[in-house]
Write a structure and sequence with these properties.
By secondary structure, this protein is of the alpha/beta class. The protein has one domain: Rossmann fold, CATH 3.40.50. 40% of the residues lie in helices and 26% in strands. It is built from nine helices and eleven strands. A seven-stranded parallel beta sheet has the order 1-10-9-8-2-4-5, with helices on both faces. A two-stranded antiparallel ribbon has the order 3-11. The longest helix has 15 residues.
C-alpha cells in the first residue's frame, strides 16, 4: 500500500505536524538523485476540467525536488493543429515549462483516416524512465494514468528504485496509488493551481 501524502508543503512546520508527513520527510534526503517525468496532457486536462485552472509548474518543481539532486526533468507534450492566437498561447505554455526547468519531449497530434485524433506519450515516457533509472535513486511520475502501473512495478522490483507518483486525487487511478511507494495529491499543495482567465470572469 502506498504512503499517501494528502498535504506536502515546503514549510518544515507543516511537514512535521503529522505522522505520515514526518515519515515521508524521512524518506527524502539531500543526496537522493531524482528524475521527474511529467505527463503534461494528463495534468493539463485534469486541472482545466476539474478546477478551471492551470498548473503552477515552478511551484510543482519546487515541491517535488525539495533539496534533492535533480538529474533530469522531462515533460511530454503534444503540439496542436491550432493556428495564430492559439499557437501563441501554446508557445507561451511551452515556455512556462522550460522556465520551470523542464525539458520538453514533443510530438505532433496524429490524425487518422475518418478524423480520429490520437496523442499520447505513454510508451515514450515509460521508455525514458527506464533508460534513466540507473542514474537515479528516486523516479517521480506526474500522472494519474493507470497505464503506468506496470512501469511503477518494474522500477520498484526490477530496478530497485523508490517511486513517487504525483497527481490529482479525483483523477488518479486507484491501482496507481496502490502500486507506488509515495502518492502526492496535488490538490492539497498550496499555490499549485492558478485560476484561468475564464474561471475568474465567471465569478
Amino acid at each position: 500500500m502506498a504512503l499517501e501524502i494528502p498535504s506536502l508543503a515546503p514549510d518544515e512546520s507543516l511537514l512535521s505536524s503529522k505522522g505520515f508527513a514526518r515519515n515521508y520527510k524521512n524518506m527524502r534526503h539531500r543526496e537522493q538523485r531524482i528524475g521527474i517525468f511529467i505527463d503534461v496532457q494528463n495534468l493539463y486536462h485534469s486541472a482545466k476540467n476539474l478546477y478551471q485552472s492551470r498548473i503552477n509548474y515552478q511551484e510543482l518543481m519546487k515541491i517535488l525536488v525539495g533539496e534533492r539532486k535533480l538529474i533530469r526533468a522531462l515533460g511530454y507534450v503534444v503540439k496542436s493543429e491550432s493556428q495564430n492566437e492559439e499557437l501563441t498561447a501554446e508557445a507561451s505554455f511551452f515556455d512556462a515549462l522550460l522556465s520551470a526547468g523542464i525539458d520538453l519531449r514533443m510530438k505532433d497530434l496524429q490524425v487518422y483516416p475518418g478524423g480520429m485524433k490520437k496523442a499520447d506519450w505513454d510508451v515514450g515516457m515509460a521508455v525514458d524512465a527506464i533508460r534513466v533509472a540507473d542514474s537515479l535513486d528516486v523516479v517521480i511520475l506526474v500522472t494519474g494514468d493507470g497505464d503506468f502501473v506496470p512501469l511503477v512495478e518494474y522500477l520498484k522490483w526490477g530496478k530497485g528504485k523508490l517511486v513517487e507518483v504525483a497527481g490529482f486525487g479525483r483523477t488518479t487511478s486507484s491501482k496507481l496509488r496502490e502500486a507506488t511507494d509515495v502518492y502526492i495529491d496535488l490538490t492539497e499543495i498550496p499555490r499549485i493551481l492558478l485560476k484561468t482567465r475564464a474561471s475568474r470572469r465567471s465569478r
